[in-house]
């Protein structure tokens, strides 16, 4: 089975619609589906609910969809220093569901695993607990959190094969494998697409059964959100 498409636009063709829920992989700016996000912007779909650890940075990542007012709601963990995100939220343009980072990751993993709810101690006694069922287990209070799933997951891999098997690299592995499993349809962009049999089975992070379409990434900027340097020590 060959799941490889010729371009990011072709890989998304027929999958986008107004009001849909999209999971977008990445951790900060690492592992962002850089080639697919601009195509969603170009498609002009609106009223989107986007599930992602964060909403990109100024001029990059999901910021592109915020700029065009295509996002109605973000389900995130870190809003960071994205001034556009901040202004849209404070003005009431953008709905925000803020999650502790570990809880967000587990909600996504649960969605891919078919587990509709789970219990966690994270957030007990805080604003996070408002409106959520709680239960005392072995003398400890836990919150009930529900799974997250999406109409479409977009992820960025380092390597892929024609069957959709994916390998992620370093920090880009955060969130991407879980999101690939939690989308009803999953499109993966990859820096390298190898021939069939070109991936070591023991190194595959996401099996192709979770991936519907694959495309070679056309944008690989890998920007650094905050570059920190120090003077080289002299001998």
Automatic annotation (TrEMBL):
Record-linked InterPro entries: 3-oxoacid_CoA-transf_A, CoA_trans_fam_I, NagB/RpiA_transferase-like
Record flagged with keyword Transferase: yes
Enzyme class (EC, first level): transferase
Gene3D superfamilies: Glutaconate Coenzyme A-transferase (3.40.1080.10)
Alphabetical UniProt keywords: Transferase
The keyword Transferase belongs to this UniProt entry's keyword annotation: yes
Name of the protein in its database record: Putative succinyl-CoA:3-ketoacid coenzyme A transferase subunit A
